[in-house]
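Q: what sequence does this backbone want?
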């Protein structure tokens, strides 16, 4: 199944998934606020509390009024688990689109970490490639020699000096990318692949920095004519 959605479509889907998941864990007030934001605002917090209380008593009698089952609990149900996973996957995709592939600290970047349903996570075209950024190692001859010798300690020491502004991330690895099909790069090259990279705090200030990845142009894998 392949579906093309506009941003407006996605907003409605996310609101529906949020409301469904919240209801399945007893957060009726939050679910109503998602479905009827303006009406809930007009009603006020106290009236919403009065509406929620009998629902909590009826559907979740074994939980206190200010509590309920967690989203990963068996009580929430598999449908709630699936809804939560779809929501988190879409949220991560949208967050990475806005940040140009840089991960942040908000929950939008979490993605499908919990996977309470146990099913394969939803797939969005392009999301997998957003999970990492590749950075070209400047001196390819040194990189090739150390890599072939499996002298990884000295190779990483060399990389630390060659790319001092390499971003932090979940993990980093050395990859050999065959770019023969790329008109700008005719030969395979060694890169550092940083998974879930965090953008350096200094940001993009120099006019010689790449506007796509934020690093000096000889350290990135983007195509540059100058």
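A:
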């Amino acid at each position: 199944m392949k579906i093309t959605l506009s941003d407006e479509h996605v907003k409605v889907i996310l609101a529906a998934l949020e409301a469904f998941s919240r209801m399945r864990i007893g957060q009726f007030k939050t679910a109503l606020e998602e479905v009827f934001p303006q009406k809930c605002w007009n009603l006020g917090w106290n009236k919403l509390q009065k509406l929620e209380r009998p629902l909590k008593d009826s559907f979740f009698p074994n939980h206190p009024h200010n509590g309920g089952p967690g989203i990963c609990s068996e009580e929430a149900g598999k449908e709630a688990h699936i809804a939560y996973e779809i929501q988190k996957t879409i949220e991560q995709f949208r967050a990475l689109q806005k940040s140009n592939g840089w991960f942040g600290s908000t929950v939008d970047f979490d993605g499908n970490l919990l996977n309470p349903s146990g099913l394969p996570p939803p797939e969005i075209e392009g999301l997998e490639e957003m999970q990492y950024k590749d950075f070209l190692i400047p001196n390819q001859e040194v990189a090739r020699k150390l890599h072939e010798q499996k002298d990884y300690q000295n190779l990483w020491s060399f990389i630390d000096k060659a790319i001092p502004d390499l971003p932090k991330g979940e993990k980093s690895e050395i990859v050999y990318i065959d770019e023969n099909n790329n008109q700008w790069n005719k030969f395979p090259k060694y890169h550092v692949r940083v998974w879930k990279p965090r953008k350096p705090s200094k940001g993009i200030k120099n006019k010689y920095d790449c506007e796509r990845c934020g690093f000096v142009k000889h350290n990135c894998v983007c195509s540059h004519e100058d």
